[in-house]
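Today's session is about reading a structure prediction critically. Students often jump straight to the picture, but the first step is always the sequence itself: look for stretches that repeat, for charged clusters, for runs of hydrophobic residues. Only then move on to the predicted structure, which in these notes is written as discrete structure tokens rather than atom positions. Here is the chain we will use throughout the hour.
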Amino acid sequence: MEQLSDRIKAMEESATIAMAQKARELKTKGIDVISLSLGEPDFKTPEHICQAAKDAIDEGKYFTYSPVPGYLDLRQAIAEKLKKENQLSYTAEQIVVSTGAKQSIANAFMCLLNPGDEVIVYAPYWVSYAEIIKLAEGVPVLINGTIENNFKATADQLKKAITPKTKAVIFSSPCNPTGAVFSREELGAMAEALADRPDIVVIADEIYEHINFSGEHVSIASMPGMMERTVTVNGFSKGFAMTGWRLGYIAAPLEIAKACGKIQGQFTSGTNSIAQRAALAALKGDMKPTEEMGKAYHRRRDLVLEKLKEVPGIKTYVPNGAFYIFPDVSSYFGKSDGEVTIKDSEDFCMYILNTAHVSLVTGDAFGAPECVRLSYAASDEDLVKAIHRIKEALSKLK
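Below is the predicted structure for this chain, in token form.
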């Protein structure tokens, strides 16, 4: 349509959401589709968090607009959490609560970027990073990790990618889509690579913090000289199984936090009041459900890796966090079942969806066209069944 802006016409649709929609379409036709495409916990939100929301409704005082950056007691609780768990000293004024970590990231880039500013993006990367950067009129500059080093780009790659136009760097740890976790040493090297450019802002996406099998989660903002230039992004979706509640937050230098509050005041105002009360209970309450979910994901990771060994031509690695496997499937490119020829990872995903009735996400969307993303946030039974189906479907390709 001529009425649509160039901005929206240039924007790519979220590949994860698009694949989930295609899977739903098949399900409506009565087909038994196993969805391994969305990054969504299959656990229910812990009961004490749900109860806090019910109590807030019954109190009858959380029906008005909430403060734009979030309720003060929630922001104070976030600051306490960051101090206790991440060794980061923030005031409540430096915290902005938003409608999901995705909005938190969008707020930050809209506040930081001018047309033509470059953002170094650690790839493979979460699908929305590049599109949000472009929407803010910035330029994504990718540095790529490889499957041989668990998809972690090096500090040397970071150093070489810096130009006079570099305004920011963004990465996730644990990483979506790869499950990679940056060690203390690797983050230290990253900080050292940025040492002579204090004007570059680092956006550290830590939404998968509680799903970490490496034994230690380290925030880059805790490194010497980094807190003054880092926007730490986190939220409640993954660690507390609260995807639908839509709660994320940033902790940032005061000037950036105030700017994010300013833009949020124009876009959405304060986020859902009842969800914020639930989030407060998540931070203040029992962490045992979160720990149990982490153990379940760890077990599922090992189950999926073991089962994938039985599938010829699938190249894997051992991710240390999140709930994804990001295998290299390029050995199947050029193969055919006589009707369908697999040219790339998108063809691979569509073939698996239509033949095996399992939904995956193409690696193109994450900056790694030789790979696909498989989420193991599903039951053991579904995971075993899905990989069996994938193996059967791939055996037809010659």
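Discussion point for the tutorial: The chain has two domains: 6-44+289-394, 60-284.
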